Amino acid sequence: MNDLVQKVKASFLEKFGRQPVLIASPGRINLIGEHTDYNEGFVLPGATDRAIILAVAPRKDDTCRFYACDFNQDFVTSLGHLERSDLHWPDYLQGVLSVFLQAGYKISGLDLAFGGNVPIGGGMSSSAAIEGGLAFALNYLYDLHLDLLTLARLARQAENDFVGVKCGIMDMFANLFGQTKRVIKLDCRSLEFEYYPFEWEKVRIVVSDSLVRRALATSEYNLRRQQCEAGVNLLQKHYPGIKSLRDVTFTRLVAYQTEFEPTVFKRCVYVIKENHRVELACEDLLRRDLVSFGQRMYESHLGLRDEYEVSCRELDLLVESAARLDGVYGSRMMGAGFGGCTISLVRSDAIKLFKEKVSADYRQATGKEPAIHVVRIEAGTRVIQE
Ligand code: GLA
Question: What is the pLDDT averaged over residues 204-226?
Answer without folding.
Answer: 91
